[in-house]
Amino acid sequence: MDDSLRDEAAAIHRALFGRELPDDLARRYVEAHAHALRRVTDAERDWMARARGSDLEALEVALRKRGGDHVLCRKFRLMTALSEASPEYYDDFVNETSRRFTAWAALAWHGLRSVLKTLKGRILLSRIGA
Amino acid sequence: MSHDTIVVGSGAAGTWAAWALRGTRTLVVDVGHRPPEGRLEGNLYDLRRARPLYDLTLGTRYESLHSLENPELTPKLKAPLFRHVTERPEGAPGIRSETFQAVASYAQGGLANAWGAQIYRFLKDDLAGFPVAEEDLAPHYDTLTREIGISGAQDDLERFHGPATGLLPPLELTGLGRRVLERYGESFRREGVFMGRPRLAVRNPDYGNLEFFQPRLPSVYTPAYTLDSMVDKGEIEYAPGHRVVSFRETEDGVEVRSTTQTFRAKRLVLALGALNTARLVLASEGDHESRLPVLENPCSFVPMVMLSRIGMPLEKRSFFAQLNLFYSGDLWKEPVVGMIYGVEGLLRSDLLFQFPFAARGCLAAARLMLPAMAVLQVFYPEDPDPSNTLRLGAEGELVIEYRPRAPGVVERHLLRVLKKAGLRGRPAHLRAGLPGASIHYAGSLPMRAKPVRRYETDPTGLLFGKRRVYVADAATFPRLPAKNLTFTIMANAIRIGEAVRRELGR
């Protein structure tokens, strides 16, 4: 169980930050999951297993835009909350320098990328179900 | 008789009723949960950069993450160090409702431990329907202004806020707040929108953005400070650790029964908050049938962004309450209150997935857009509605029925007007708070000039049919204007405490 949660944590972390998951955060993900996500059902576990290896970022945005409260969206929120409490992630969340011009370019890029990810997510959902 | 007066509850009402009774033999009784020992000092961002904050932002058992699966608490109430504010003592009955998200406190200082420190006087129009005039409350507002220290300014909001005498200087604005205020002017007033600095029970102008994580910040007033001070000076007695379950009048006084002890006094002042005071009264009467009115301010939230500030660096030392506004015009029959809050003090992870991007885009938006963002919160006034009631359930729990109302009319107008100040928000992003979300509860034992039925109170707070039992909290408010009620709870509690004191002197 721990190993599969660690694998899941690593995949979500890669989707969010594009880098490998540190051991400490993996341990905390497993711990926090036991406390904060107690109502994960067998069907939701099966879904997570089906989604393994897929583009989780694409699935998450497609599910979020459908509304509701999908287990994958909750797991992304869990990972985000944990990483924000760690100083190693400070710069991922906080900008302390003026980036007024690059900001617009970055947001435009992410806007376009998000449209593509949403489309990809919808296609993936049509294959593995929601 | 060991005491002249027992005050049940130590929140805004109980503390200030006790304050008015200083010098008599006054005992304050409550459960009295206190904050845990952990303490954050400094600036939230400096702390976050320096060390892991799992325990202090998420909790030793990740308890603040329970909101992933449960109804959302406010950001402040879900913070680990604020859990004591809403922690229910073992055996205490709960509150049951399908539509009303009720919050009750058993903490020393009550719900005001987690308040936003917003200070509003109820003026003449706000008190329509109250058997109390502006002049009755004004001296107590003045006293409180001196005692607790209130920051603010003399500006366009004086007609809504009341006199600016005795105020401390206003708090520092963020760049966004300054920009909005610079652009405010006649064109806003023509649209019925009036804007200015909030009045806040906040002293120190240098903030660490810790107000969502650290209770009892020295700069932010809470009634617990006044209670502690009175106890330290020997002006009152305080008995925490007691959950009061019933009271009854005797030949020569009152008897108050807690889960562990019985107290006796000449007079009783109930100050548990509008919900728990009503519960205690109904439980003491053994009444599971009566339905009492309940009021709360419908509220809503909408995010706004100032495009010119996207990509600006984060400002790390501002209090979250930036600007207040009032709408007074044809769209609503009486003034509607708005606040513009900064989001600097919140965790990014609480807001991140509200952005319409994929996850990495949400992270980028949090970095680049949040310094350009603010939240408009709007409160509406509320009158009694026969659909909105509370009663005592079979197990002693409160059962609340409340008809949800959909705000939106005034918010759309405010968003249109705020565009002139560079703040852009979309009505589609408007989110109505669930009934109960305002945590402004009132009206369960309404005050009447001449009470005629059970569960009404007279202008001195005396409960109908009783000779020695007074209600000092917002249960007595017969209606709610849109303004935050805490300052008026305190002023009214002083007024009622003085009435009790006069009775003791007879």
Strand content of chain B: 15-25%
Q: Give the oligomeric state.
A: heterodimer
Q: How much strand of chain A?
A: under 5%
Binned, the helix content of chain B reads 10-25%
Largest interface: A-B, 53 and 41 residues
Provide the CATH architecture of chain B. 3-Layer(bba) Sandwich
- Given helix and strand content, the structural type of chain B is alpha/beta
Specify Rg of chain B, calculated over alpha carbons: 22 Å
Number of helices of chain B: 13
Q: What's the main sheet of chain B like?
A: 7 strands, mixed
The fold-level CATH name of chain B is FAD/NAD(P)-binding domain
How many beta-strand runs of chain B?
A: 19
Query: SSE order of chain A in H/E notation?
Result: HHHHHHH
Question: Can you give a write-up of this model?
Answer:
- The complex is a heterodimer of chains A (130) and B (506).
- Chain A contains seven helices and no strands.
- Chain A is mainly alpha-helical.
- Chain A has one domain.
- Chain A is globular.
- With 506 residues, chain B is an alpha/beta fold.
- Chain B has a single domain, classed as FAD/NAD(P)-binding domain (3-Layer(bba) Sandwich), CATH 3.50.50.60.
- Chain B is built from 13 helices and 19 strands.
- Chain B has helices at residues 12-20, 44-50, 54-58, 83-86, 134-148, 158-161, 175-183, 186-190, 223-232, 274-285, 359-369, 409-418, 486-505; strands at residues 3-8, 26-29, 95-96, 193-196, 237-239, 244-249, 254-258, 262-270, 292-293, 295-296, 299-305, 321-327, 336-342, 373-379, 389-392, 398-401, 431-432, 441-442, 469-471.
- In chain B, strand 7 and strand 8 form a beta hairpin.
- At the A-B interface, helix 1, helix 2, helix 4, helix 5 and helix 6 of A face helix 2, helix 3 and helix 11 of B.
